[in-house]
## 1
Amino acid sequence: MELVKLYIDGKRVIADNRMTILEVARENGITSIPTLCHDGRLEPFASCYLCVVKVRGGRTLTPACSTRVAAGMVVETSNAEIRRSRKAALELMLSNHFADCIGPCQLACPAGVDIQGYIALAALDKYRDAIALIKDRNPLPAVCGRVCTRPCEVKGCRRTLLDEAVGVDYIKRYLSDLDLGDKNPWRPSVAPHNGKKVAVVGAGPAGLSCAYYLALRGYKVSMFEAQPEAGGMLRYGIPEYRLPKDVLDLEINQILDLGVQLSTNVQLGRDFTIASLKQVGYDAVFLGIGAWDSSKMRVADEDSPGVLAGIEFLRQFGLKRRIDIHGRVLVVGGGNTAIDCARTALRLGVAEVRLLYRRTRTEMPANQTEIAEAEHEGVKMDFLAAPVRVLRGENGRVAGMECIRMELGQPDQSGRRSPKPVRGSEFRVDCDFVLAAIGQGTRVKELVDGRVPNFLPLGESLSLTRWQTVEVNERTFETTVDGVFSGGDVVTGAATAIEAIAAGRKAAYAIDRYVATGRAEPEPVEVYSRKDAYRKVDVEDLPPGSADGRRGMPVLLPAERALSFAEVETGYSGEDLRRETARCLECGCTALFTCDLRRYATEYGADVQTFMGEAVEHRVDRRHPLLVLDPNKCVLCGRCVRICSELVGVAAYGFVNRGFDTVVKPALGDSLLDTECVSCGLCIGTCPTGAIAEKLPLTKPGPWKTTRVESVCPYCSAGCRLGYEISGTTLVQVSRAAGNPGTGGNHCKKGRFGYGHVQSKERLRWPLLRVGRELQETSLDEALRYASMRLKELTRRVSGDQVAVFVSPRLTNEEIYLAQKLARLALRTHNVTSLTHLVNRELEAPDVVSTASHADIADAQALLVVNTALDEESFAVDIACKQAIRKGARLVYVGPEDNRTSRFAELHLRSLPGGQTFAILGLLKDYAALEPGALDDRPGLSRAVADLSDEQLEKLSGVPRAASREAAAILSKTILKVMLFNKDYRGARQAHDERLFAEAAAALGCSVLALREKANTQGLLDMGADPRWLPGYVDPEGGEALEQMEKELGVVLRELSPPGLDVAQLLREKKIKVAVVLGEDPVGAAGFPQDLRDGLLAADFLLVGDLFLTATAASATVALPLSSTGETSGTMTNAERRVQRLQRAVPPVGGIETWEILSQLAGQLGYRFKMKYGSVQDVTAEIQRVVPIWAGLDLDSAGAVWNADGFKLPKVPFTGLGKPVAPVPTLGLDNLEVRFGTWFDTIFEKARAAPPVVSL
Amino acid sequence: MRILVGLGTCGMAAGAGATYAALQARTGTLSGHCNVGKTGCVGMCFREPLVEVREDDGTRWQYGQMTPERVDRLLEEHVGKGQPIEEWLVWTSEGKGREKTFLDRQQRIVLRNCGLIDPERIEEYLEVGGYQALKRVLERKDPDGLINTIIESGLRGRGGAGFLTGMKWRFTRLASGKQRYVICNADEGDPGAFMDRSVLESDPHSVLEGMAIAGHAIGATQGYIYVRAEYPMAVERLNIAVAQAEAHGLLGHDVLGTGFEFHVELKEGAGAFVCGEETALIASIEGRRGMPRIRPPFPAVKGLWECPTNINNVETFANVPWIVLNGALAFNRLGTANSKGTKVFAMAGKIRRGGLVEVPMGISIRAIVNDVCGGIKEDRKFKAVQMGGPSGGCIPAELQDTVIDYESINKTGAIMGSGGLVVLDETTCMVDVARFFLDFTQRESCGKCTFCRVGTKRMLEILVRITEGQGREGDIEKLENLASLVRNNSLCGLGQTAPNPVLTTLKYFRGEYEAHISNRKCPAHQCQALLTYTVNEKCNGCQVCKRACAAKAITGEKGKPHVIDHSLCVRCDECYRACRFEAITRM
């Protein structure tokens, strides 16, 4: 290694020359170099070619991920050439990516609403979250749920290939009606006022939408509306029976509630002008004044009395004015306005309504359901007919219409077949009124043609298109006037509500940019891969889904509609919703929000069409119960292949085929189930796209944008950091969290997939109180009141010796600390320990603790593993060992069995069962022969070694002397060495042996990593869950440390009766009368000694806290629901003695966190102040203040290892050999592992038994 | 007197096995002074099977196209009566034979023993001075001096890239490592190239000797030959050679009693072209998928099993013993300023004499095509040569005075490559040539790098559509853009050079591309989809074409000129081939 100076983007940096340009750049804060194939845990690969940079002097660009830095290098990480090259790489990958990022429904929606997302949330009963998701793109869902033209269904929904579209709009309506009906509807968070104001002219859908999104961004928005009420065409163009105005009012009010000001009856050009708005200080103006002019039919005599403009007719009606209409009504037109006119007229009681349309029914632009409903209601339709001239009666009024038959000609440029009149086919239709609904225009020309004085600021002019609509920049919605934006019908001509809403939102984005930066920028365009871009998707491509047909919208009977403006569509029921959401085929990708390919494609503006050609199509493999393989989405970065072979050592994946046909597949097998796959899920975490995705155990797996909360895995003592991915209050999945020292973001199957317990339906949700033989649900207050009453009464009667508190080594430090504090302060006993630990206590040497960290393993040159199957007992440590081996470390294994670790070892000293202690002594002897002085100052060891002859050693250990010598040679040649063993190992070992290991390790020059089975066994001991010591191993019987602790806590602890008999002994003798068990299930655990179990059940009062109603909880007097990891914050201490913070990710299922229960219980027992905390952080702070070993720990970093130098427990030096003892099982008393194991085995059994389901 | 039959794969394919059997069957009838033996390939593939009569005085008479039927007359006249059969002779050591310039214009170092000795008998190799070079270097015990000799000779890697062999050896020698390896790259994969196969089949010991010398130079005790499994005869003869060399103490624990240890093991490749790339080759030997990795570190520093490894090509190793025996100067005298010695080429395409030739560096392409190989077949017009296989490029006829020399060839956009040389005439469509080679490389891409995996596929799609008459405006620019992207963004030589055939044809024959796209015409009249068949004035109405036309596109009465209906014509070429009067014009 050498430090070299180089320049990156003009910045001088100094770096280790073994590092790559990418690593050095990132270390120096340059994080903009994209890469798909790089994973810091793996060797450089260089295949995606995204990370290219320019190294001065190089002929071509250089991949930064695999080029080592060199002295004097001058690197440029971004320029036009680099960006072009990266973009091309992305486009090439996307040209062979037969996959959909999002559903075609979302693509079809003008507003881009995440339809798949809200349907999934709706299916999970997450209605509020669903509304939040919809309103991210559309603030008027209740309106749209009624009037939308549904491009998502008509053009978008793939289900149409199979049967009928999913009722997207009906689902949306259900959700929004539910929300509107809520006392406390969902409300977005509004940014603080930013001091800027924007005028929105026109309170129609475009204006309302623009106002909403501006208000969210902190703008003061004033809306100006010419009509008496807000809503625009929604109010004045759509009849009540389709859109009840109270629904519209509710949604408008929600927008006004955000602080948007509305002025009505003020008209642009009459009451104010754009210039005047600018003058009074509006930073920007949005023009959304719609298209209110009816188009002319262009037939003779159309100005005759009785001929009305359809839109004006509807407006008059909307204004609640009396309209004189009767007799026979002829409606001309085929759009929604025509249908609305016809149905409104019908409801006004006219004799007959007849509709004239010049093409056929299939070409009608109106919604097909609307047309059908109109027919139901009695509207007569005349297709392929056009008006020629109005026929006047004697009074000059309309008396009929001369019409002509039409026929369809060749398709025109728009693809529609244009109608042509059939000569000589004229015919007459008698009528009393004509409603012309053939189109609408704007009234903007009269504003800009100079008739309105000072309409625009001086020197500005507002350009119009040749259709007399406002000319805007398509993406920013800027008009030709500085600071004036426009959208909706006034720009597009009469169009749909959803288009106007989309325009309003996009304009709001651009306005915000304009006001903030002086330059309007368009909403970023996301790049999406689409299957349709490659070829026509057909029914064969659809994934399996519900076979149900579309749930129709319940409607009023035609009879009920007559002369009534009651809403025709009455809305879905909950059952309708459930069935309809199940019909969604989830076309979009589950990795939508995490996919790096898409993120970079968007960042680099990649165009999926650029290199479009043949794409390789693969089958999606869903056979593995935990993950889905979709090779169509694979970019061949090989990260899964390499993670699995380089880190896990399994090599379940491999590259198959060559050239363009190359694909990553389960190696040498058809399915992952046929490989050695251990289901650790590291491949999911490393996959940069959705090619390997977790099969989420949800009815609809989203995807949703999740927030990530980092915490620590609750299973083993490696203490892997995990990311809890949260949507709303749902824990959606667990992801890897990089940055854990040593474990580097790795995890095992339990960490990745074993989170089902957190939000399991089987969780204990309510406190239970024993009434007679039964446990009854009760409130927490009642349970605590009762428990404290009994505890007070009993503790008065019995001595401290007869009270015991048992805590699980899976609780947090804070919980354990509070439990022991409760025991010692309120229950006046030192009897606090773990039942798990109690069983193994004779075998445990608490003074033997780790002296090595995970980082030491990564740097080690030699590893000595004693009798530990690392991959099973501490997967992340196993990976660290393998990484060390790849870097050249040599592993020696000592132990009787063959396992993955022993097979990985360079040398296996195969000892007899129980003979590993002698194997270590033998090794020591050989080592001392090579390294004289190794045993100096270690008289005990020295004597033991000297006492044993070679023959005895070989006989007792079972290890051939030659092998032992070979191992000694390996150790003597190396400097950085770590010995690993599991303190909770099931094999025959006792405290003596552990102490010997520790002593021998020191003699061999090894540091020690002493693994534990449970996540927080170390913390359990550290926090004083042992009668023999107080937190921090403080002597309870006296001394300076005790005095200090008593002073800090303000209590006297030495008055407690000193720890007397062994707790196990007390149990056996049934002396324990009061027992508190937190998180342990000795009754349900197989193998727990019967006498101890009986002793526990003999207690007069048993308080049990757990996540589940375990057998122990079922035997309790009072059972309380505890919070799990993920539901609480705090800390845990792993095998390295590293104290790491946990973060609460979701609210506890039981409604309260464990520390609060303990605090409240203590309060009820009279410790209202000494055990009162504002938050769990206060408990952590108290531990840091009171517990000496925690003094000065920096817990806000990645965790900190407490200093063992301050470790007060006297180290017992090795004094002699113990006798071999029978193996004793360690017990999974808190049943997390058992639950996980059962679940895991079941899903695999099912998967193996299931017929292979393979589909595209 | 001896009769030797050329029994390389080429000879066997032409029927030499039967000739050999026929000769053997007749040896009993021959007088005692004549025996029948085997030898390798002398390179005259266009005249296989070859039989050589070697007189006791060393004069050699090479007969071509010696089918079993010719055996009798040969035995009778030449062997029996001592009268050589002039009309069958292709070459003699006396300067006779119809094809004498083919061999006489060559200068043979690598191929020095090919066709001369029996490759399955180490004795014959020893007789011609085999293993003397190894003996010499082991006696001198001066690896650094040896490396200097190789550097001074100017020998450059014959695998294609042309790196100075001696320098490579020096780097490997200087790198630190517990173990060092020598690898012989015999994964010859270029379409149309067979130099290495021929050397391995005809003179395997020269390669083994070269490897052992390299092993001594760099301090390796183990060598691997990575050879294609598709070369069964080469594998077999190598195995025989290794066994014989071990038996003679020329390989093994104690070579020639000098204490030098050197073993050679064969690894058969499974037919992936990319495994010719050294890092992929190493991965393949290690049992991993043959995928290249980024260099540095170079194999000389971190190669097989992470140890310093020297990889040379078959031809490079075959040069080594000669250089040791004849001195650096002798080798250095041959060739040009920067390219020394000779180069073996596998000649294919539209030439009269196709086969294996070894020529001194500095000879012009014109001389190879015209003098050595006898010019273009059927007196067509010479259009271009394609050099260097799929990594190479096309050199047009205008540049035929370019001399064989690494730098000169590179200047044209082609590369020396390993020695494939395809001669193209006026009937070759250059777009189709580019398509052919790109089709090969894109199939053989290992699939690792984005640009090589997808980019070459997209380039191929464009070329295919151009040759199918579907070319679009802008396709040439798209090709050029992709070509430069693929070249600059690939990890290994395969991807970096895959666009070369496209780039060189675009450079010299851009007009042909444009004609395909803009005029929908293939100037060489090769791209089926772009051809128009018409009947010309030579038609006498014989009706043969009419009957041949399955599409029923040809009409016409007997004896009267026929007409082709272009709307029905499917361009199957049947009429063109059927017509005996050249009355069909194909444009």
## 2
Amino acid sequence: MKRIPSLRSDRARRRGGRPRPSLARLVAGPAVAVRYPGYADPGDERRTATFLTGSLLLHAAAVAALFVIASLAPEIEDRILHLQILSQAPPPPPPVVPEPLPIAAPEPPPPPVVRVARPIPPPPIAVPQPVARPLPPPPVVALEPLPQIDRIAKREAPRPLERAEAPRRTDPAAPHLAPPPLAIDRVTVASPDAPRLPAAHRAASPPDPIRAPRPVRDVAPAPAPVVAVPAAPAPPRAAAQRPSLTPPRQPRIERSRPSDTRPDLHGVALGSLAPCKSDARELDLKQRTVATAGKLPLCESPAGRFHFVETKNVNAFLMRIEQAAGRRSGDRCSELILALDCLTDSSRRSRR
Amino acid sequence: MRALLALPLLWVASLPAAAAESPWSGYLDYAYVYSSAEPEALRARLAQYGGEAGIRLEDYVSVALGSGAADAASDPDAVVRRAAIARLLLYLASGDSEQLDRSVDAVEDLSGRLDRNENRYWYHYILAHRALERGQRFDFVGELLELWLHVIVPLETPYDTLETLSLSESPHSGFVAALPYLYESLARLILIRSQQMGVHNGLDPLAALVRLLADGRVGAHPDVIPAELSSRAYLERIVTRLDGTESDAGSLSFTLALFEASKYHDAARALLAERGLDAETVKALRVASGAYEAALDQAVTLQGKAAVYTRVLSQLGEVYAAKQRLGVDPDIESRFSIEGAIEVYGNLKESEGDLAAQGYPSRDVYVAAMQRLWEEIQETSLNAADFYLTRALQKPHLADDHARSAARIHARYLSFFQRFATGDGRETVPDSAYFAAYEAARGYGDSLQSYAGGSLSRAEMEQSTHRYVAALRLFPFDRQLWPALTASLERLGKENDYLDLARPVAEAVTTSRAVDGWIQNAEPGADPIAAIRRALSDSQVLVYLGFAEEETVEELENSLAELRARRDEAESQLVALTAKRESLGRRGAAPPAAPDPSVREAAARAVDAVEVEALDARIGDARTSLVRLEKQIAARTTALPLFKATLGTESLADELRARRDHPVHTLLRRMFYEGRP
């Protein structure tokens, strides 16, 4: 059977080890003191006398203190109300009506004395001097006046035109076995002018038909297809398994041309070209083109004809390009730069 | 006949032999290079390889990669993997979902052997394609995250090591060397393929992968994948938008949706430039508008909504301008309106205290987005009003309605301007907003005064007059606006009020420190501004500005000689009268009240006095006339050149209209707040 420890035992256990003073030790105190040399016990009688004397003195002092306090207490004046007990007079004889005695009214209490701090009178108000009233604001016609002027950030001058960023080579020393490709959107084919690569590298060259994303094409004639060369080789695995690179050459597509255009030009809308790398850059170039073109509908240069279809503002800007034959179609930024160059040259010529 | 029957048998019998020695196995092992190509390019690629191998892929996968092929092969994993890849390629080239199902069936046989990176890559890649095909966006995201964690990440360190040692092209580098292609394929799968397959929602968890791919991974190996063939530029545009003003708190789904919508917009814009508003263009515009609606539905924060409105307002402006230019008015319904954009702007303004909750990472991004939205609102408003005014001219019987429509659009912009440009937090108002407010104020007056016909109420006439004055306060350098004000006052019969209205405007210009500093520093446009300021500093030129026409300047100059002749004539007349007056001698005493008729001398003296009085009156008239002529000559010799100098300053307004970033916009902003309490 398991023994349940009692609370008492716990307490006792908790007490264990802690030294506590014993009553016997206190009683034995004087006996202990006797053991010291030079110490004499004063005796019980003297202690009793001392105790009695001290008690008397203490009580006397307390009574004296009470008297002193009582003498200092304020006198309480009893307010005595003088009441007059009315006694009913004996009934008068019937023919004479006795006059009623006047009833004494109670004495009203004295009015309380209230000390009210008088307000300090304010200093005399100086007579305001006449001041010049501000002129009324100018008549507000449509716009409310404003309290302040905003700090205007100084606009930055247009930055010089960016060039396309060269891709970072991870290893500059690595041999570049294939010439750079000429286009993105076409199936990669070997360039006839490209030197034939060594068999190992040629076999290892991966087919690369990966298309870069382009915007949705419109029906406008697109630039002539260009031939792309294969990308750099991938690591070969086995010579027998390497794909050879002889994909079919893309046929050149004949495109319809507007009747009012030169035969060596082909048209394309700016919106159908690949977007710029940066939206902000494209917006900036459009802004500059709108500002430079003004009401000029057309600008012609060796790069082609630039039709400024709508130049009211950037919001509605539309442009169409008739690119010169043999010129690669760039993205929107490159075409806008060409248009700006054309406009600048045109304005220079007109100044001369 | 037998020979003819034997030929197909021989061809069928030769297939296994061709398959056994086919280079297709190599092509399929390298399929990570070209598997992300567009279907058309992929079909051409597979046809080319089929020609080289002497057997089409469809036949090869049936003959050489059948169910029993793996059992007989020394490397059964490779056979199973190639079968799965081949089926995937056929699916990607043709869109046949049955091929995808068979690819999944094949690749699931590898589920127990995913410790090999190549197996695991194709396993997740194929399952991701199946998730796209079924529209299971969560599965798609899950497969790609698995692919990244268990294939890409383990390959990165070995690839870096091999690349550092120039061994990444070593024949023994194995699947590690495929890493740049894996990056490329993954980026295309997330950014392009998912959108083509219509998975527009739930892609936000992949935003982290997109950022990682853009961070020195895609396009970072030009020796392996040339930059021209890489999707790096596309990826960078997406990441830029994720972090830029046209984001929705970094949501990839929204960014891709808006990017797709802008592609449709570009297509419609190209058609608009080439064909005008024909049926195909209208259809493309509707498609683009629908795409923008889809993007708006994707937007969770106000930042996303503002980004959509910023783009779609441009489309609205293009359509209004095209309608005006081409004189047509096709019905192009759209959910979007200028009012909606203003509402979004207002909501954003009210939420300015907690920009992070609205998706903006910083106040600079917020301010740039708000200014861009404002600019689109103002230009779309002006384009729309121009269209209605053009319609008013084209259809005189509807001129009243169209002119009032234009006036309402202008009034709406002015209300928008007054609400936000005159309150606190004006930094979200672009500099060009003040000139646009001038155009709207003047456009309001012009709409009613010049286009609405003669049915204006007096209140409308007074309102348009007030708008003209407001326009002059905003842009006092429009010389043609001053006579418009006098014409408006004339219709009200209040021509006398012209100087009362014009003088405060002129004084604001002549006392402006901003204008003075602009001229002193020879800032852009300082010359025409100085010419106008000089003109406004002379009250006579102010009157010329209000009442003189440009055509009358020459006439006024010609009349100067005539005035001088008249002055000479008046002078000579005055001299003659004065001489005659002198000949009559000194004027005597006043005649008596009752002259004595008997005294002749007194009577004669009374007659002389009357003549002298008449002479004095004529001399006075001649002197007055001479003074008036002197004044006229002085006015024309001093004020006319000042007025003439203001001619030709109209180009400043054209420049400001064409350029949002013209420096004079800054001056107008300063002038607007100058001197106001």
